[in-house]
What does this fold into?
Amino acid sequence: MVLLKRGKEIYVHMSVKVNITDEKLAKLKAIMEINKKKPGPLMPTLHEAQKIFGCIPIEIQKVIAKELNESIAKINGVVTFYGNFSVEPKGENVINVCLGTACYVRGSQGVLDAFQDELRIHSGQTTEDGKFTLQSTRCIGACGLAPIFTVNDTVYGNASVSKAKEVLSTLR
Ligand code: FES
It folds into this structure.
């Protein structure tokens, strides 16, 4: 469920909340004022928006579109194309399973399937309790440890279905 309460300045996705406060909006607008004076202001603005709000929902995309005089379609296209950005808030733990060649040939698809089964979500989704976001990624340059998955900033090498289950049980 996605709900924007007028006047409450809180954007809600499932049980994960994104505070769109006046203070945060002022911060974003100040950054856009600086970025507007430089060539290519969109990408640095989106990076800052992601940092400030934890995601870039359509409400924030509209603010950016107006300030930078860009179409919402273009901004939404960039936000949804790049893995660094997200339209919806991410969970407390972001799991990324590498599907790069070295990891894939060593069974990373099975690891991703195990996470999907355990969490009852598909790759790209967040659990309803807001605890886990599951994603797949391309090579992160740790092929010697293939197959790998990451949870936030921690890399787990020589991954397996049992290791995925073990890590999940410690995080639950
Ligand atoms: S292919 Fe997975 S880390 Fe390189």
